[in-house]
Design goal:
Blueprint lengths: L17 H13 L12 E3 L2 E2 L4 H18 L3 H5 L1 H13 L5 E2 L2 E2 L1 H17 L6 H16 L26 H14 L10 H13 L15 E2 H16 L6 H14 L9 E2 L9 H14 L5 H13 L7 E2 L7 E2 H16 L8
Antiparallel strand pairs: 1-2, 1-8, 3-4, 5-6, 7-8
Helix pairs in contact: 1-13, 2-4, 2-5, 2-13, 4-5, 5-6, 5-7, 7-8, 9-10, 9-11, 10-11, 11-12, 11-13
Amino acid sequence: MLDYRAGLNTDLSEAGRKEDIDRLLEWLISSPVRSPEGALYAWIGEDGPSFKYPEVTAYFVKLCVIADSAAGNPGIMEKIGNSVDYLVEELEKNEGRINHNSRDYVFDTAMVLSALVAVRSKYDMPVSKELLQSTARFIVDCLIRKKGVGIVTDDLPDRWSTGYNPHLLKVLPALCDYNTLAISGDMEPIGSPGIIDGLIKEVLNDFVPRGVSAPEFFSVSPLYTHAFCYALEGLIGMRARNRIGLDAAIINGVELLSQWQNEDGSWNNWQGAADKVQRPADATAQAIRLFIIVDPVKYENNIKRGIDYLKAGEAPGGGLYYSDRNMHQNACATIFAVQAFMWNLVGPDVKTLV
């Protein structure tokens, strides 16, 4: 099994221990949820694998970079090199963009950029600077135009993922890391030296105006918990990259999450939409990570109940079920849970948030 870190704290819930991490990570690496060419499927259900998902493959690659670094053992990345190749090929097919259902998504593209920047920073793997420059430029161009997808010729569906919405705050740490490498000469710059930094400030102000402790998106109804967590993850990622003035919004947002937790430790997928409710593992794992980052002492009971809920949702064949009403083995939920379990054992490294 994968020995990602020695000296782990053992005074914890039975759920979320090192053996759980090892087992779930091995499932992600070796089970049919990862295709022969390295792509992760979104899930495995009764009818087999679903669709290949670059965004989720990016989360997986970044998680493996973290696990490999913690182990001091390069074996993990050797196993999953074809997953890196898959991400590169997906970008090359579409001029540096991630395309899904004939649309180029800013969020998905940024998650792939984040993973490949992490890979290029640590390993001798073929990820070209020119390709990543094209990827970063696409993200910048869309955010300047306040778009969540690239130029489209048909009507966009009214979904949180297609618009210029707060989930795009999670894009900002990826751009910030790219810009840091560009300033040092390790990446190709995007225009003038200050263009990305200025854009980051603008996007932050669009969603969390300076001095505002409860941004408008906190009170949207119905509110999609998964996307709400993405927004908080972006704010926390930028605070870890020395952006000031975000603490109040982060603290208040995490406190809202604590109020929404169900008795069984889960979170509903929607707040304020009783007809849509199920209890997904992805949002539950995201909330646990946020609690561990912000105040693991205050939220100790929330963390424990959440971890117990995730552990109870592990499928007999590996991976976590998506929810109580949608019992497929879900790759994204499993990835987020692995990092939540890791951080519960050894504490968070916020800049490595997957």
